[in-house]
Amino acid sequence: MKNEPAFPNSHFSNVYGMSLRDYFAAKAMQGYCADKEFVDACVFMDKDVKEEAARVSYAMADAMLKAREA
């Protein structure tokens, strides 16, 4: 799985910011946190909403990176 920088064009330093995996996870997390049914399901299953959102967001990001390889 290739985890390249999301914003590789830094003209001012060697710091590249977040990885592409982090970028994909952040986008997925926005959707999960805005989804009342996701939040309600976490509460119903006695799961910490923040931890579960982070976990499934990175799982989605990994799937997105894998799909790019196909």
Please render the helix and strand layout as text.
Blueprint: H1 20-34, H2 36-44, H3 49-69
Helix pairs in contact: 1-3
Describe the fold and architecture.
- The structure is a single chain.
- By secondary structure, the chain is mainly alpha-helical.
- It has one domain.
- Helices cover 64% and strands 0% of the residues.
- It has 3 helices and no strands.
- It has helices at 20-34, 36-44, 49-69.
- Helix 1 packs across helix 3 (49-69).
- The longest helix has 21 residues, at 49-69.
- The chain is elongated, with a radius of gyration of 15 Å.
- It starts with 19 loop residues before the first helix and ends with a helix.
- The model has no long low-confidence stretch (mean pLDDT 86).
Distance between the termini: 11 Å
How much helix, percentage-wise, in residues? 55-70%
Spatial shape: elongated
Largest sheet: none
Radius of gyration: 15 Å
Structural class designation: mainly alpha
> What is the domain tally?
1
Short précis:
With 70 residues, this protein is mostly helical. The chain is built from three helices and no strands.
List key phrases describing it.
single chain, 70 residues, mainly alpha
